[in-house]
């Protein structure tokens, strides 16, 4: 086994060429360099060191110490090719416990590397290391990595870019350049203090102070003109923008003034291309778009901007982040004309979101969507409340504490062991139960007048699925404490979005309208505000798989559950034992 250390996008990594017993000949060093400039061979293992460390960063004229990977914010890209194995060795140099999730990676037979704390692993404690080891099978496109414990992903996140097999082209014209566009949220306060305070008082957390593009808030915020992302482009060229919404709690609208996009991919799955001048992207989602620059632009600079989509109750960060699209024009200086931002949709423009979402179709036709289902589920998703403890004053609804739930079950994370370890060992000892309800125990008019009783139940409840079960889940928003869009993410799987609608799902009429030909395939779906989304998947990946809202505040309040997918009968259908370095609690 031979290693070669390189630097790529500022992130050191090494390669291992498998099945080579002899020393690497000198000519192969050049080959390795070329592979990482756009070529590859199968059988490469890519090693990335992740050192979690503190770093001082100044935004909005305030300097604070944040958690970073290798001192970078946002984190540098992890770049691999379809068919590669990736080994990411995380070493924790900070006082916080950490874990990392490789958002959208299928983790076929590698559930130990999925990352959510207390679900597939105990967190990595101070001074400890853990190697996330997984293969990339049948996937290519834009995904991302992020911390998966508490609110640490506010600063611990970065792109995960999967290039196609060598000599495999994109199903669209080759772009002149590829550019990651990472949307984030900046808090002047310590985000761990923000959520800790909210969980103590039972009220809503303080909102962010700014949105960011690639870590920069831009000129519309105080003291931030010099902290503006600029995308420099040439006329008449096509750019592939790899968009990632890493914001903690906000869906976003995005546009570039006087320009349009061609959407070509969602959540690392190709879609039938469509034109749009507005992008809607929820936390957890990724979207690849082609930006064709103008041959003769009317100006040298144009604003790009993002603002929130929000339909819930309470406060939110109703600000706008801006960056600049800057043309490189010969014999022309930058325009001194003040830039103008084309208006973004109103913050509650649900019709714009619905129209945008309806345009997504899988490129493959027919897609590999299950035509029949073995198990059907109806999961309500929404807010609720827990009673205020005795002798305490709480700031939630009517003096209670905010909670969130699926089927009125607010999920409680284990604290001394991870679910996957417990399941694999066969010694449950009451850590979890397998009685998560397949549908609401008390049906009600989900999107109508909310019930007076908003109390949730609490527990660590799971659903057990036999291997290869075909599953349909209808995700139904509720109006309890306000109807709201919820970005639901499923670990370990992609799913097909076979239907969406407003109001209450009608099991007699709505299935007839399902798209079973070319539905979009995703890992994160925005359940419509006051509506529903129906998804289908095949449970062909054994392990314990988290499903949750990707609004971090709702995740903290319990809007989550877990699927346990049993082993199949064949050797390649069984989860291997845990790695020797799996962290302990």
UniProtKB/TrEMBL annotation:
One of its GO terms (molecular function) is hydroquinone:oxygen oxidoreductase activity. Belongs to the multicopper oxidase family. Its cofactor is Cu cation. Binds 4 Cu cations per monomer. Lignin degradation and detoxification of lignin-derived products. It comes from the Eukaryota. CDD domains: CuRO_1_LCC_plant, CuRO_2_LCC_plant, CuRO_3_LCC_plant. Coiled coil: none annotated. One of its GO terms (biological process) is lignin catabolic process. Its EC number is 1.10.3.2. Residues 52-164, 178-328, 437-567 form the Plastocyanin-like domain. This is Laccase. It catalyses: 4 hydroquinone + O2 = 4 benzosemiquinone + 2 H2O. It is found in: Secreted, Extracellular space, Apoplast. It comes from Salvia splendens (Scarlet sage). Keywords: Apoplast, Copper, Glycoprotein, Lignin degradation, Metal-binding, Oxidoreductase, Repeat, Secreted. One of its GO terms (cellular component) is apoplast. PANTHER family: LACCASE (PTHR11709:SF453), MULTI-COPPER OXIDASE (PTHR11709). InterPro entries: Cu-oxidase-like_N, Cu-oxidase_2nd, Cu-oxidase_C, Cu-oxidase_fam, Cu_oxidase_CS, Cu_oxidase_Cu_BS, Cupredoxin, CuRO_1_LCC.
């Amino acid at each position: 086994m031979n290693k070669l250390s390189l630097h790529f996008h500022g992130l050191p990594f090494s390669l291992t060429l498998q099945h080579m017993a002899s020393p690497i000949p000198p000519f192969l060093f050049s080959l390795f360099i070329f592979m990482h400039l756009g070529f590859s061979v199968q059988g490469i293992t890519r090693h990335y060191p992740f050192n979690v460390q503190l770093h001082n960063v100044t935004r909005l004229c305030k300097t604070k110490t944040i958690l970073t990977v290798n001192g970078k914010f946002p984190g540098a890209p992890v770049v691999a090719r379809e068919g590669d194995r990736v080994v990411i060795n995380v070493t924790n140099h900070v006082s916080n416990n950490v874990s990392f999730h490789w958002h959208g990676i299928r983790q076929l037979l590698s559930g130990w590397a999925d990352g959510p704390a207390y679900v597939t692993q105990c967190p990595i404690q101070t001074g400890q290391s853990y190697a996330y080891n997984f293969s990339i099978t049948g996937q290519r496109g834009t995904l991302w990595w992020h911390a998966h414990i508490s609110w640490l992903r506010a600063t611990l996140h970065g792109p995960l870019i999967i290039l196609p097999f060598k000599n495999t082209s994109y199903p669209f014209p080759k772009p002149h350049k590829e550019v990651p566009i990472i949307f984030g949220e900046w808090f002047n306060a310590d985000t761990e203090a923000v959520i800790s305070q909210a969980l103590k008082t039972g009220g809503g957390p303080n909102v962010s102070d700014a949105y960011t593009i690639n870590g920069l808030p831009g000129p519309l915020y105080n003291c931030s003109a010099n902290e503006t992302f600029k995308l420099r482009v040439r006329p008449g060229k096509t750019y592939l923008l790899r968009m990632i919404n890493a914001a903690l709690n906000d869906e976003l609208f995005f546009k570039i003034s006087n320009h349009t996009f061609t959407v070509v991919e969602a959540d690392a799955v190709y879609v039938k291309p469509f034109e749009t001048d507005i992008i809607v992207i929820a936390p957890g989602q990724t979207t690849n778009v082609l930006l064709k620059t103008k041959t003769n632009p009317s100006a040298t600079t144009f604003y790009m901007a993002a603002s929130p989509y929000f339909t819930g109750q309470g406060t939110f960060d109703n600000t706008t982040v801006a960056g600049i699209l800057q043309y490189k024009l010969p014999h022309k200086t930058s325009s001194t004309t003040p830039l103008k931002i084309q208006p973004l949709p109103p913050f509650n423009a649900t019709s714009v979101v619905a129209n945008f979402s309806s345009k997504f179709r899988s490129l493959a036709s027919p897609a590999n969507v299950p035509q029949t289902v073995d198990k059907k589920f109806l999961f309500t998703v929404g807010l609720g409340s827990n009673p205020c403890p005795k002798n305490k004053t709480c700031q939630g609804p009517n003096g209670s504490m905010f909670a969130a739930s699926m089927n009125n079950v607010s999920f409680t994370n284990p604290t001394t062991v991870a679910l996957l370890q417990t399941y694999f060992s066969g010694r449950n000892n009451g850590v979890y139960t397998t009685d998560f309800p397949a549908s609401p125990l008390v049906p009600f008019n989900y999107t109508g007048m909310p019930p007076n009783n908003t109390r949730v139940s609490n527990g660590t409840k799971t659903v057990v699925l036999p291997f290869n079960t075909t599953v349909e889940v209808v995700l139904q928003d509720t109006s309890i404490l306000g109807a709201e869009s919820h970005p639901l993410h499923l670990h370990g799987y992609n799913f097909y979005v076979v239907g969406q609608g407003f109001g209450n799902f009608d099991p007699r009429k709505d299935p007839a309208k399902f798209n079973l030909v070319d539905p979009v395939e995703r890992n994160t779906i925005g359940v419509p505000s006051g509506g529903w989304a129906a998804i289908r998947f095949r449970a062909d990946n054994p392990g314990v798989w988290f499903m949750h809202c990707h609004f971090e505040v709702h995740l903290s309040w319990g809007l989550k559950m877990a699927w346990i997918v049993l082993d199949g009968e064949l050797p390649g259908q069984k989860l291997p034992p845990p790695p020797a370095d799996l962290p302990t609690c």
